[in-house]
């Protein structure tokens, strides 16, 4: 396992444990990622900007392949997707998990093999389904009873589409209630508890256009313990046994989803991938042996754990305000490019770069520029007491669920994304500009 995939255990003001493995200290307080100084990227591409370390992405893909050599590893595109990212993932031997026609078409335009793509979604639009069938995705995950007949009709007479069923196994896991998806009472999947999952099986088997290949579950996000995955797998195998007993069908695939937790700040826990792989394999063998089932092929869907630690966000300080005993450091980005702190209290560890400071640290709140009191990127963080307008702040672990969730609030424009590798920086996604907003507004 790479250094960057280990759980962050060290603490300290100069700790780089949650930064990409290529991160190097430079003179004058600067850092380089992928061999490129971050101040150079800020000068060349302006701020705010996202930096993505290609080598870190590829290393994390290889770590998953090594940990799960016999499983299908699908990168969860919702974490972050670009054509370059799709190419890196494909070249490292991973499949792709998409949630929309947009993600699907972008991947295919990057020559990602459609048969290695799985389409998810609790509310797939006709466009989503049509694109998936037209392009020939490997599997479509059925998320609700109404999807069964609709999908079969879209496939048409004489056609055949491989499908899976998303099951809610009744396992609570995840760092925040808004990202816990394995329990009843939320919008995803078919419940094991109330029988919805069991009742969907004969309906699917009765559709000649649909080939049921397996079951799928996703119990939550930012999970740092192995135990919930083991418990969910045990319940899923139990359902596979009941399907065999009731319908005479032994399903060949079991997708356990993703949600693998990472450390956002030094000292935070991260999911032990080696332990996860070992425990899942052992539980799958023992549970299937007890149920007299052949062992299905396992699939997992890491997204955040591949992209998150490979990214760094760069911001320029615009203002520093001392008020009511607090220090507010306002930057040129905010919830428009990273809504995670406002959505579910995500916490980050920003760092001053580009100059050394001998000032004592102060406790500060890094605030965004958007017109919301909740537009806070990092609260209660330690920054040099002399932080001032014009300074650069770098925020690690910024590669997942930030640019992919960015909005056009206040018409600020979404930041660019710059890839770095072997001392070279290149633009992957350009900055959204005022002309982009003008061109979309066609009314008078």
Fold and architecture overview:
With 444 residues, the chain is an alpha/beta fold. The chain contains 12 helices and 21 strands. α8 (227-247) packs parallel to α9 (273-291). The protein starts with 23 loop residues before the first strand and ends with a helix. The model is unreliable at 1-12 (pLDDT under 50).
Shape descriptor: globular
Low-confidence stretches: 1-12
Return Rg in Å. Answer: 23 Å
Give the helix level as a range of percent.
Answer: 25-40%
Q: Which structural category fits the helices and strands?
A: alpha/beta
Describe what is shown at a glance.
This protein has twelve helices and 21 strands. It is an alpha/beta fold. Helix 8 packs parallel to helix 9 (273-291).
Write the layout of secondary structure elements.
Elements: E1 24-25, E2 31-33, E3 36-37, H1 38-45, E4 49-53, H2 54-67, E5 72-76, H3 83-91, E6 95-98, H4 101-109, E7 117-119, H5 126-135, E8 139-142, H6 146-155, E9 161-168, E10 190-191, H7 196-205, E11 210-216, H8 227-247, E12 253-255, H9 273-291, E13 297-300, H10 304-307, E14 311-323, E15 326-331, H11 340-344, E16 351-353, E17 361-367, E18 376-384, E19 392-396, E20 417-421, E21 424-429, H12 434-440
Parallel strand pairs: 4-20, 5-6, 5-13, 6-7, 7-8, 8-9, 9-10, 9-11, 11-12, 12-13, 15-17
Antiparallel strand pairs: 1-2, 2-3, 4-14, 14-15, 14-19, 16-19, 17-18, 20-21
Helix pairs in contact: 4-5, 8-9
